[in-house]
């Protein structure tokens, strides 16, 4: 009798367990069904952030005549060459205001022109003295330059329509500009190709002093990078990707030592300044660029013959002047 009661109890328990498993399975199916019915992620969001252009290489890599040109179709579908310094807008289109990652009051995104892809060492740069400013490998005393230190570990390039004015001494660093567009270190996971233009979020800036010239290094991240939604300022980089800023600083401090040069220095107590300060540097270097255009040029730099042909320059200036903070020298730190 006891034995049969035990058998009944075990059978009942078995049924209960099976019932529970069936119920859990049903819930799981329901969840997946909801997932299947979710609207697909709109692909348009990603494509409108991107700067659509074609990259054309001339000559062979590693030779002095190698150039990377960027072409874009005009309204009549004919490809025209873009100047990477003058024709690419500084401000990138933002994501639609409905996207949760980019609320209406989000800071502007900027177009990053990649010169040197991460994990490579050839020193490519925008040729500011050539027509249409293509990218070429830099030369010193007739020799093509490479980083003797080794491969660079971040994507490196510049912001278009910016200029570090060598006639102007920065109040914050005490040195004049280096006569180049503003440099950018993109810390995303993906490698970006030479000549590619990507929308980035600005996170901070280092005040490097190289050969008694101010050579700002903006730290930024590709807006489509996996980390981008979590990084909004330099303190987020320090917290979530510790070591990144000091590795960048040490890279720039030491990269010329194998060429027999002394280590580079940094102003502002070597600090990586926050996003608002970096925005001030962008604002200043864009203003210097506008002054350069208005004053007709400087020592061999190649400027467009017709400034009115620069599409979106007024819009860039309007957004930069209206939405970015005052210049670093005027801002309260
Ligand atoms: Mg520079």
UniProtKB/TrEMBL annotation:
InterPro entries: Pyrophosphatase (IPR008162), Pyrophosphatase_sf (IPR036649). It holds the Pfam family Pyrophosphatase. Its cofactor is Mg(2+). It comes from the Eukaryota. The chain crosses the membrane at residues 6-24. The keyword Secreted does not apply. GO terms for molecular function: inorganic diphosphate phosphatase activity; magnesium ion binding. It is an enzyme of class 3 (hydrolase). One of its GO terms (biological process) is phosphate-containing compound metabolic process. One of its GO terms (cellular component) is cytoplasm. Its EC number is 3.6.1.1. Keywords: Hydrolase, Magnesium, Membrane, Metal-binding, Transmembrane, Transmembrane helix. PROSITE patterns: PPASE. Belongs to the PPase family. This is inorganic diphosphatase.
